Amino acid sequence: MKLDLFLKNGLLVFPGEGALPGGLGIRDGKIVLTAALGEEFDAARSIDCQGQWIMPGIIDPHVHFGFGDPENDFRTESRSAALGGVTSVISFYRTKDFREGFDAERTRAESQSVIDFSYHLGLTNDLHVKTLAECYERFGVSSYKMYMMYKGQAGLAKGFTDIDDGLLFAAMRETAALPGAILGVHCENVEVIPYLRDPLRAEGRDDLVAWDEQSPDFLEAENVHRVCYFARKTGCAVNIVHLSSKEALDEVRRHRYAGGPPMYVETCPHYLFTDKHDPAGVLAKANPPLRSQDDIDALWEGILDGTVTTVGTDHVPRKRATKEKSVWSASNGLPGVATFLPILMEAGYHQRQVPPEVLAMVASRTAARTYNMHGKGTLTPGADADIVVVDPDLERVVDPANLLSYSDYSPFEGRSLRGWPTMTFSRGRLLAENGKLTDAAIDGTGHYLPRLPKHQR
């Protein structure tokens, strides 16, 4: 059998299992074999990886494409993702009625994206919940999100009138009835935040520490408790997205039990890397806020013991001009899809000696399993040839001009990170090499991923 591509002399990283020197054979966009070090195979192209890591492509299960330049974000942000070793993303889609808008949204993304993609549906009204089963079948979307920070007055300011605990409970019941479905929840108690925020503003506070103090860890933990408690009563699989604190993480530990519904935890690279004293200031404003060094350490412990199951960037590609304001009026969120892997490498591998197979697990394999992304997140023969080759010692300074995002800043700009991808392959196509896109990274080469369990595909 002649291969299309043979990657040799690398360190094969098997998520959750270990790493071994060897090679990888690819044909027709699929992984067809793993090879021992020194084995040779006939291939149209052979690449000597010179001891670099050969990992499953990174999966970012939490991006907000469409929050920067809605008509073109899948073009710019998918290219930025490919530069960072990300080969699949799941973006959030919100509209009044998914049945009327989803097809057009998917078609636009298919014409632009250079990597594979899917969607979570953002549930904001009763109609969304009532039509969840129909959307599950029609669009192959098995993951949803509730925004508990948009309850009450906070929701009315955004035009949301239906978000409350009743909608959360109803969404859990509907999700629990769909095989393989999962409900993600943004956990912050928005009803207490104004009580804490108003005195801070009156004092003239305008910094990231104040942003943390107006939405402290216990307000996140309180909402996590509520979500996990309702999950136990409904049997709904839940995912606590962008979890930021030790106290909230401990709530998940407290509620998990053998035989109970799955309770997943996602954190973000910024919560694993920097704290509320970050010198980037308002550029690093996010929801939930950056926390303390103790919280960073606790999240890494959660990755090592399996309590934290996935990492997603919560990527929002807005312009610098939307951030360079008071912390109270600056836009929320930050871009991060291109620096996802380098931050995990720097903060995890270099600073904490986290093994490669653990990083590959939380950055790829578990997301594929959690979200029914068939053929992703593994080096097993038969899987899609989504591969990232990483030089663990390659050091670069973060420069937003080189990241190709619509966003023109990075909260990490000017910082030196060790561990950058040197090659990114999507279904066997080389999309990026040594920090540059290739000719293969053209519009519409990515695939939409329906994500129903195998028996319903």
TrEMBL record:
Its cofactor is Zn(2+). It is an enzyme of class 3 (hydrolase). Keywords: Hydrolase. Its EC number is 3.5.2.2. GO terms for molecular function: dihydropyrimidinase activity. This is Dihydropyrimidinase. It holds the Pfam family Amidohydro_1. The keyword DNA repair does not apply. GO terms for cellular component: cytosol. InterPro entries: Amidohydro-rel, Metal-dep_hydrolase_composite, Metal_Hydrolase, Metallo-dep_Hydrolases_sf. PANTHER family: COLLAPSIN RESPONSE MEDIATOR PROTEIN, HYDRANTOINASE/DIHYDROPYRIMIDINASE FAMILY MEMBER. Residues 271-430 form the Amidohydrolase-related domain. The keyword Hydrolase applies. SUPFAM superfamilies: Composite domain of metallo-dependent hydrolases, Metallo-dependent hydrolases.
